[in-house]
Every structure is written in C-alpha cells, then in structure tokens.
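Quick note —
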Amino acid sequence: MSEARPLSPVTVALIDDHPVVLAGIESWFAASEDPIVTVAKGPDVSLAFRGPGATADVVVLDLQLSQGTPVYRELRQLVALERQVIVYTMRDSQEDALTCLDLGAFTYLTKAEGENHLVAATLAAAACRPYTPPMLAGAFGSDLSSGRPALAPREVEVLLEWFQSESKAMVGESLGISVRTVNTYLDRIRIKYANVGRPAPTKANLVARAVQDGWVSLDEL
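Predicted structure written out below.
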C-alpha cells in the first residue's frame, strides 16, 4: 500500500546566508511532487522564531552563517520549541553531524547531497518519519566486527527510561522532553541497528539488543 500524501502543503523556513542557495532550495521545493511551500527565507535565524517562519512545519538551517561559528545555540532553542530542524550545510563533518543530532536536529545533510535528499528529508520531517541520508549513515559509526552500533549517551538514557516505563509519555515526563522527541530518539536507535544488519522493530527486540550489547543490564530492567 502506498504512503498517503500530505493533505496540505508542507511549510518551510529556510535559513541560509547565500542568496543563490536560498533560491535553489526554494525552486526545488516548488517543483516537489508533494507540495512544499517556503514561507520565510533569509540569513537570520530569527526568521524561524517570528512571523510565518514561527509556525513553519520544518526549518532548514545552515549550520554556519555569517557570524562564523556553528549556530548550536539557535538549534538548541528551536528544538526546545519542538521544531523539526534539518541542518543543511557545507560542513562534511562526522563530529558536527553527531553534535547536531545530540542537540535534537531531525537530520543532518551536506549540501553535496542535493535536491532529492533535501526534499525527501523535508517531507519526512513534516510527517515525523525518520530519514537517514548517506552522510549521516556514515556518521552513525559502529564496531563492524561485532555489529554493535554506537549509541550516544542521550540515546542510551532514553532507551533505558523507555524500558522502565509503561509509556512514551512517561519517558517524556521523566526526561523533560516531548513524546515526539522520544520517538525521534527511538527511531534513530532503530536506524542504527538496521544499518549494522540487526533490525529491532519492536520493544522486545530493542531490549534484547541492548542487553546483548551491554547498554543495559538485566538488573536495570
């Protein structure tokens, strides 16, 4: 059965300090088979906090704007407001990618990955579906000899809390995050396991994988 298409256009705020990049992304979105509408664009992150950009479904954010330093603080602020943020950058850095994911970005794309990945990621973000572009799949490091994925400390924390809770709502309340953020962490963990050939589609599967890999002990369950 094919996926249902969005009932209304996905709205996007584009934050980048290069006019040609803004124009290019906007044209890609305008040409998308599933409608994507740019409601705010420019070099100032404040556009994502005010006016039409404040309610955009997705924020596409260049990691390094004219101020010269990565906009981690602004990314953290957007995530705190439960915004879906796609970091779209020239910085092909595993460290940057994992930092952005740890801060709560929906995904991390390099500008070399181009139109198809950005459009697909934007539609996935609006629908709260996980999306892992090629660069990010590489950043999800693992011990290939053992098939053990590299989980970030926050991912392990969410995983353990979920094992010990009756619902994702309880996990969110305990950790001070939204249910959507809990789902994002769990989806990311499942992607990491799938990438090393050990899929864990159910909670029981994840419990087994976590015990096997030493992320949690039986005493903690």
